[in-house]
Structure formats: C-alpha cells, structure tokens
Amino acid sequence: MTVAPSEAVAQTFPAKPIRIVTSAPGNSDDLAARLIAQGLTSALGQQTIVDNRGVIAVELAAKASSDGYTLLLYGAPMWLAPFMRDHVPYDPVRDFTPITGATSSPNLLIVHPSLPVKSARELIALAKARPGELNYGSGSAGSTPHLAGELFRSMAGINVVRVAYKGSGPALTALLGDEVQFMFPSTGSVYPLLKSGKVRPLAVTTLKPTPLAPGLPTMAESGLTDYESASLLAVFAPAGTPAAIVRLLNQEMVKILNRPETKERLASAGVEAVGTTPEQFAATLKIEMTRWGKLITDAGIRGE
C-alpha cells in the first residue's frame, strides 16, 4: 500500500520539540497556550514549549517553516490588523491554516460605581441626555474591548468618546480612578474587580447568558438586539503544513480543551474552552473578518 506523502510525514511527527508562539506572558492567551503545550507534551512524547513574543508573534509564525513545529496561538488583532493598517507583513487567510478554535471570553459592560445607572438601557439613556460627555476606556485600536465599545456606540446611536490606553490593565485603572465612565473588558481581566465591588457590571456581550457571568443580562436583553462580542483565541499553523499533521494536532488539542480540568482551569480565569475542527474555525474566521472589518471601515479605525 502506498502512503501519501503527508501521511508519511505525520507518522514520524513530531521528531523534535514543538513551539507555540503567542503574545505576552501573564494573560489568558499565555494560560491557554501553556495548558495546550502541557497536554501536547504528554500526548505526543515531544516537548512543546511556549514562546511569548508579544506583537511580533504573528509575523514570526507566518515566516516559519510549514512543518508543524512552529504554531501560533493568537486572537482578533491577528486577523483584523489588515483592516487597520496599510502594510501588514502577512495575510491572515493566505499565510495560515487554522488548527482549532481555542478559547472564547465574552466582554462585560462595566461602569464606575459613581455613575447613576444600573443597566445598559440606563447607560444609553444617560449618554443620550449628555452627548459627548461620557468616556469609555479601551486598550489598543482594534482590540475586542475597543470594538465592543464602538459596536455599542453604533448600535445605541450615542455620542461617547473613546479614551485609548496601552492595554486593558491601564484602562481598568483609569476606570477605577473615574477618568472614564465605562468599558468592555474581557471577563478574565476583570474577575477580581467584580468580586471587590469596585466596578459595577451591567451586561454580558454573549447572545445568551453565560456561566462566566452568572446573573448578568445580555446586551440583547438590554435592548440591543443581536449585539455580540467575544475575545476569541485560535491555534494556527503556517500555510502549507501537511494536512495529516494539522489533523493530528487538531485531534490532540480538542481532547486537551475538552478535559474537565482544562475547562475548569480556564473558567476560573473567565475563559471558556473551545474545540473546533479546522474547517469550523475557518468559517468563524470568515464571519469575524466580515463583521468586524465592516465596523472598522465604517468607523475609520486605524492602528495606533
């Protein structure tokens, strides 16, 4: 029986350590990457290491060999950058092959406790009564908290001002200091503050209620029908990676993500484990790029 070249490669894969390139350490991206790396090390018998490269991670992975030994775990800034910058050194569709969706973390609409609102409806009413007076904080341009804020502004028909910070951490600090009145952080980044009562959550950005934010109404329930936003992470291989290797990695990663201990560990950080086929995430990627790309273009959002 003749063995197809890609199948033959997969039979000997991996023969050396695998590297997962991702963003900076200490966030939910890093946590997901390390949980997947630990699982792959056990399952495949070769060490899988996490390589935190920050903003250059995507470009580095795009230039890597298509042999399955360099993988990328990243979120929306990877596939939305071409809508915000004229010269991006990679194409998110042409240069990468999806392996699996990894995690999803909804955003929360939160306000400073001094703001006299208890719901998203009341915030919208206040913003309409005080046009141009309310500020919302976000990290970098095109980040999910930024886009969630722009989607809110657009769908609610309100005049609010975005104040940009170098990340969600500084934006949260600004909210605590009442420099901005509201923001849309991911659940994971704001969990400790919710428990302390230092911020007031108004709604969650999933279409349906989520156990990651028990008791909170959705934005749709608050009057903005079809409002949806979440921070997605996925694992990619460089384009041209043999299909058999992609299938093998997908099977093992989905097993890891579906383990109760993985789900529990991620949920404790405000993140939901997600395991998909490569085809399913490719379809999700197309939807995300179309939906958010239109918002970015219509709002004239440019990279900072």
Strand content: 15-25%
Query: First CA to last CA: what distance?
Result: 56 Å
Number of helices: 11
| Average residue-wise pLDDT | 92
The strand line-up of the biggest sheet is 2-1-3-10-4-11
Using the coordinates shown, work out and report the CATH topology of the largest domain: D-Maltodextrin-Binding Protein, domain 2
Question: How do the strands and helices of this protein lay out in sequence?
Answer:
Layout lengths: L4 H7 L6 E5 L5 H17 L3 E5 L4 H6 L7 E6 H9 L11 E11 L1 E4 L8 H10 L5 E4 L5 H13 L4 E4 L3 H9 L5 E2 L3 H10 L3 E5 L25 E9 L4 H16 L1 H8 L4 E2 L4 H22 L5
Parallel strand pairs: 1-2, 1-3, 6-7, 6-8
Antiparallel strand pairs: 3-10, 4-10, 4-11, 5-8, 5-9
Helix pairs in contact: 1-9, 2-9, 4-11
What tags apply to this protein structure?
globular; D-Maltodextrin-Binding Protein, domain 2; 5-stranded mixed β-sheet; single chain; 6-stranded mixed β-sheet; 11 strands; alpha/beta; 304 residues; 2 domains; disordered N terminus
Textual characterization of the structure:
The structure is a single chain. By secondary structure, the chain is α/β, with parallel strands linked by helices. It folds into two domains: 5-105 and 231-299, 3-Layer(aba) Sandwich (D-Maltodextrin-Binding Protein, domain 2); 108-204, Periplasmic binding protein-like II (D-Maltodextrin-Binding Protein, domain 2), CATH 3.40.190.10. It has helices at 5-11, 28-44, 57-62, 76-84, 120-129, 144-156, 168-176, 187-196, 243-258, 260-267, 278-299, and strands spanning 18-22, 48-52, 70-75, 96-106, 108-111, 135-138, 161-164, 182-183, 200-204, 230-238, 272-273. Helix 2 links the parallel strand 1 and strand 2. Helix 2 crosses helix 9 (243-258) and helix 4 (76-84) packs parallel to helix 11. The radius of gyration is 20 Å and the shape is globular. Mean pLDDT is 92; it is low at 1-5.
